[in-house]
């Protein structure tokens, strides 16, 4: 089964069992992937977590039921996985901007999330510039935070982490320490293979450094790997996000490689990240 077919199989499984007690671990198994890898791929492609997708789809169907049937609101609350009508009403209002009662009266607009279909663009795709290199292991020094990818905590937490590092001057320190093989400040995604189904990910902000570990910073050893290195051109964060999507929706389905599962890197230069010609890179270990 191909990469795209595997992802679509997992989405179809979610849709078929949308009213059941869905397990993210089981969803990932449908795609023949680890929980972490599937959640990460899904969030890159859709900008939301699996839990967000399930919630949005359930509330979309709930709105359709409210408009098209006479089912009681309390019954719909339980049908779509809420313990109380109050919890259902709160979630419904957050997504749709109106209460279930108002939706039934057709007061206001409903925000609908359609069923996902994964596609590979075959025409008009933007060219991707990349190279494949092999490198020995190297040391990164910096700071790390742990995020839960099952809940989508990484989608909100990582940008806040970068804001903190840029505000308190840590990024300047990391640029000064950068004497290793890779030039720039790095964002590093790390998953412990022994805990890959937990959905937890360590995210590091650091730089390649040869020498002693500076006070108040931690060290991470990046293993020797074969890397595919993608060029990223344009202002942050959109250029980086768009390139990640292009990698997973176009490059991997069209090439004989898969991610190796070891740390992945985002490489940022010491220029103005808002510039239209800002240059950065994505490094993915492959096998």
From TrEMBL:
<dbReference type="GO" id="GO:0003700">
    <property type="term" value="F:DNA-binding transcription factor activity"/>
</dbReference>
<dbReference type="InterPro" id="IPR018060">
    <property type="entry name" value="HTH_AraC"/>
</dbReference>
<keyword id="KW-0238">DNA-binding</keyword>
<keyword id="KW-0805">Transcription regulation</keyword>
<dbReference type="InterPro" id="IPR029441">
    <property type="entry name" value="Cass2"/>
</dbReference>
<dbReference type="Pfam" id="PF14526">
    <property type="entry name" value="Cass2"/>
</dbReference>
<dbReference type="InterPro" id="IPR020449">
    <property type="entry name" value="Tscrpt_reg_AraC-type_HTH"/>
</dbReference>
<dbReference type="InterPro" id="IPR018062">
    <property type="entry name" value="HTH_AraC-typ_CS"/>
</dbReference>
<dbReference type="InterPro" id="IPR050959">
    <property type="entry name" value="MarA-like"/>
</dbReference>
<feature type="domain" description="HTH araC/xylS-type">
    <location>
        <begin position="8"/>
        <end position="106"/>
    </location>
</feature>
<protein>
    <submittedName>
        <fullName>AraC family transcriptional regulator</fullName>
    </submittedName>
</protein>
<dbReference type="GO" id="GO:0043565">
    <property type="term" value="F:sequence-specific DNA binding"/>
</dbReference>
<dbReference type="InterPro" id="IPR011256">
    <property type="entry name" value="Reg_factor_effector_dom_sf"/>
</dbReference>
<dbReference type="Pfam" id="PF12833">
    <property type="entry name" value="HTH_18"/>
</dbReference>
<keyword id="KW-0804">Transcription</keyword>
<dbReference type="InterPro" id="IPR010499">
    <property type="entry name" value="AraC_E-bd"/>
</dbReference>
<dbReference type="InterPro" id="IPR009057">
    <property type="entry name" value="Homeodomain-like_sf"/>
</dbReference>
């Amino acid at each position: 089964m191909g990469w795209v077919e595997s992802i679509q199989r997992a989405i179809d499984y979610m849709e078929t069992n949308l009213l059941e007690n869905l397990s993210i671990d089981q969803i990932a198994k449908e795609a023949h992937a680890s929980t972490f890898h599937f959640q990460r791929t899904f969030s890159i492609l859709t900008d939301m977590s699996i839990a967000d997708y399930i919630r949005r789809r359930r509330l979309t169907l709930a709105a359709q039921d409210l408009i098209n049937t006479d089912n009681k609101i309390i019954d719909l609350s339980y049908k779509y996985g809420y313990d109380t009508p109050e919890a259902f009403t709160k979630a419904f209002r957050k997504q749709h901007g109106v209460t279930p009662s108002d939706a039934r009266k057709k007061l206001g607009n409903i925000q609908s999330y359609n069923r996902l279909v994964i596609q590979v663009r075959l025409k008009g795709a933007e060219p991707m510039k990349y190279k494949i290199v092999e490198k020995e292991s190297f040391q990164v020094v910096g700071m790390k935070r742990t995020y839960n990818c099952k809940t989508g905590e990484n989608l909100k937490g990582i940008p806040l982490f970068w804001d903190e590092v840029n505000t308190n001057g840590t990024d300047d320190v990391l640029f000064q320490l950068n004497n290793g093989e890779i030039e720039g400040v790095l964002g590093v995604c790390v998953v412990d293979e022994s805990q890959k189904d937990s959905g937890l990910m360590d995210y590091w902000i650091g730089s390649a450094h040869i020498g002693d570990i500076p006070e108040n910073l931690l060290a991470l050893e990046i293993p020797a790997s074969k890397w595919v290195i993608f060029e990223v051109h344009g202002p942050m964060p959109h250029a980086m996000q768009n390139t990640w999507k292009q990698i997973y929706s176009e490059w991997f389905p069209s090439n004989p490689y898969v991610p190796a599962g070891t740390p992945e890197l985002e490489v940022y230069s010491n220029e103005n990240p808002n510039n239209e010609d800002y240059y950065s890179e994505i490094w993915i270990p492959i096998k």
